[in-house]
Specification:
There is one protein chain. This protein is mainly β. The protein has a single domain, classed as Methylamine Dehydrogenase, Chain H (7 Propeller). The protein is built from eight helices and 35 strands. Strands 2, 30, 31, 32, 33 and 34 form a six-stranded antiparallel beta sheet that branches.
């Protein structure tokens, strides 16, 4: 291995919480950047009495960066879920985690499986429902929090009004209807995905359509175009018999995860009615995250990160990620072309990985033709990303930013007001420096990937998952609105700016 195993610091618990700390800034953050960058991700990797087994089992910690007039104020806090309380008070695992079984009596474990009990540890991302902020994961439950203090304030049942067991953590926004689009998942005799809309103000959901499957495939996200919803159905999923058996044997979601006898499927729905229009198949691959999708002639173009198989899930165990020679799942940035008449997709590789966490200028080009995709890339034997890359999908060029022995997090794009181009904005990334034992919020120019400024945290943060930037000019809304200039109008794209989540 060409480097020390410092990446293991990204999988080590950080118990220190800060309420509102003024961070020292080197360089500068743009004057127009005013608002809260709120991220979510692991904070604790064990209970009082045992180690957790999988990266997705870790207990959630919020991190908030309030950027005002060039200054940055920071807070971080654990989300006070019932799972987190049980882990610290009773010392164990309360509910079935992806890779760690509950340490409950057998009759409790059986009851949990039969009643569909899911963890309430919301470790993936954040969303906003009207004035209410919430931490989310693939669960029926979101936990609300105060954006000033990060104190957990309540619980929200995301499946209320839906025939679903849980909802996805990745949502989309429909600017015409002022609604969020998401998918509810039901397990049982048949697996069903319910595509639904929800008012951005946080009202009741409206189901659009229900897709049923004989097997139990796994989905993590989906894509939107101007007129379509694209549900990407992985050819990997759950052995439900094994999951039921796990109530007795303590097998987990990870043990029950398997290849299915099916191809990768792209189910194309009408975005307005939910009507099924076509299904396009492709050779087996595993998908977590989409970059974007758009319509072109008689096809849909979908850019996403594709893995070869289910090792994208099964190799994300903490013993592997902390090892001296981690087996990192390799995701590549691919472009799939889906004929609207159905049949087989074609695909081409836009950038070889390992890459993940694809990001675009969502406000300007989600559902429309795009040029740039930002990702994190992993090199040099690390189990964590080592660089941020910008892929120009039209000219097929790549720019890269990185610092030796540091690990940048998801690059969140924030558009400049009245942008002159698709990449006229900045990227925000939380960068872990294990040797120095601290993390920094780094601000990059999205056009050149040159550094504009950074703010040093008083401690190290474990490597996070997903975050959102909320513009302070619209504090009562779940999105930031601004008129776009003639550059976007001339391309006949959407005429509003939006920061999703």
């Amino acid at each position: 291995m060409s480097r020390s195993a410092d990446y293991r610091a990204g999988f080590r618990t950080q118990t220190e919480e800060k309420t509102d700390v003024d961070l020292p800034v080197e360089g500068s953050f743009p004057e127009w950047l005013q608002g809260d960058f709120i991220g979510n991700g692991p904070g604790q990797f064990e209970t009082r009495e045992q180690q957790l087994h999988h990266w997705f089992d870790s207990f959630a910690m919020l991190r908030r960066f309030r950027i005002e007039n060039g200054s940055v104020r920071y807070a971080n806090k654990f989300i006070n879920s019932r799972d987190y309380e049980y882990a610290n008070d009773d010392g164990g695992v309360r509910t079935p985690f992806p890779g760690t079984p509950p340490d409950r009596p057998i009759w409790t474990r059986v009851q949990q499986i039969l009643t569909g009990t899911f963890p309430d540890n919301p470790v993936i991302g954040v969303q906003r429902f009207g004035d209410e902020f919430a931490a989310v994961t693939e669960s029926p439950t979101a936990l609300t929090f105060d954006p000033d203090t990060l104190e957990t304030t309540g619980r929200r049942d995301l499946t209320a009004g839906l025939e679903s067991d849980l909802t996805l953590a990745h949502v989309h926004y429909d600017h015409d209807e002022d609604t969020f689009l998401n998918i509810g998942v039901s397990y049982g005799g048949e697996t069903a995905f319910t595509v639904f809309s929800r008012p951005a103000s946080g009202g009741s959901p409206t189901p659009l359509t229900r897709l049923q499957f004989d097997e139990t495939p796994y989905i993590h996200s989906f894509a939107l175009t101007e007129h379509h919803i694209v549900v990407t159905v992985n050819p990997f999923g759950l052995d439900t018999t094994g999951l039921l058996r796990g109530a007795i044997t303590k097998e987990t979601f990870l043990d029950a995860f398997q290849a299915l006898d099916s191809p990768l499927r792209f189910v194309v729905l009408n975005r307005t009615t939910g009507e099924h229009e076509t299904t396009v198949t492709a050779p087996s691959a595993f998908i977590y995250h989409h970059a974007n999708a758009y319509e072109r002639d008689d096809e849909i173009v979908v850019d996403l990160v594709a893995f070869e198989d289910d090792r994208a899930v099964t190799e994300l165990t903490l013993p592997n990620l902390r090892s001296d020679d981690p087996q990192v799942p390799v995701g590549d940035l691919y472009r799939y072309q889906l004929p609207l008449t159905g049949g087989e997709a074609t695909r081409e590789c836009l950038h070889r990985g390992p890459v993940e966490f694809p990001m675009i200028n969502y406000r300007a080009v989600n559902g429309q033709s795009h040029q740039y995709v930002y990702l994190v890339e992993t090199n040099n034997g690390s189990s964590l990303p080592t660089d941020i890359v910008k892929v120009d999908t039209k000219n097929r060029t790549v720019q890269r930013w990185g610092e030796a022995n540091t690990h940048p997090g998801e690059p969140v794009f924030v558009s400049k007001p009245n942008p002159a181009s698709e990449d006229d904005g900045i990227l925000l990334s939380v960068v872990l420096d294990p040797e120095a034992n601290y993390s920094e919020l780094v601000c990059l120019d999205a056009g050149s990937l040159s550094e504009r400024g950074r703010a040093r945290l008083p401690h190290r943060l474990p490597y996070g998952f997903h975050g959102q930037f909320y513009d302070s000019s619209s504090p009562s809304r779940s999105m930031a609105w601004d008129r776009l200039d003639s550059w976007f109008d001339s391309r006949n794209t959407i005429t509003w700016l939006y920061s999703p989540g």
